[in-house]
Predict the structure.
Amino acid sequence: MKGLFITGTDTGVGKTWVTGALARALRRKGYDVGVCKPIQSGNLKDDPTGDAMTLRRLAGVLDSISDICLCALPQPVAPQLAMRLSEVDIYMEDVVSFCRRASNRHEWVFVEGAGGVAVPYLSDAWVSDVIRVLDLPVLIVARPGLGTVNHSILTIEYLRNQDIRVVGVVFNRGSDPCTENDTDSRLAALLEETNASYIRESTGVPVFGSLPHIPSYAYEPNIVSIVEENVDIPGLLESLGSVYSGY
Ligand SMILES: Nc1ncnc2c1ncn2[C@@H]1O[C@H](COP(=O)(O)OP(=O)(O)OP(=O)(O)O)[C@@H](O)[C@H]1O
Ligand SMILES: [Mg+2]
């Protein structure tokens, strides 16, 4: 199975938006990329504001929603607890076969996790256990501003301690409040650039760029150019190429 596992430094950092936008940009370049959100909590599968439907729309894939999401649970809590509350059990083998089926439909599969890496996820596994068994390299989505150096480096080290390969970090500006003030936006840009250098220098992991806020009217026509102007797609492809060079 070839692809990426997309995790984040926290819940709400922009995993869904970055996954969907990157998948769309790569699909436009001719890569057959599918998207999955195996377990979703807080929205039912076909809720248009939920992750599975958002991924489908942003990536522009035509897979059925049940091929994108294995299990959706209504309570907005960590998946393991949401399963317990709904009296549902989903095990590692269920998620692994679900993702393998996605890889039979697409050459590349981008799998979005839930929350971050140290998260109780399935009835018998946490997020990092699933990443290890799927044997996918990881892309980390992080906030660009204050706090991200700490969160990003802790996430990278946690994954490395479990022998999981990290290909890079993408910052997401989308959920941060945007500022109209020039001084503040200059400071934000300096902070972002400095944060990327700290992460790179301390861990050797590249930061491929920052996804800006994508206004809803811009999704369809402009999402690819927004991604290409702000994220180093060739760098990401090169990192993926080095992971899969034996294929
Ligand atoms: N680049 C963006 N452009 C526009 N809106 C964005 C962007 N990134 C995030 N958002 C907004 O922020 C919210 C949180 O982002 P997102 O759902 O991608 O986070 P997440 O890390 O996937 O969260 P979860 O842990 O719940 O899966 C989205 O619902 C969306 O409204
Ligand atoms: Mg999400």
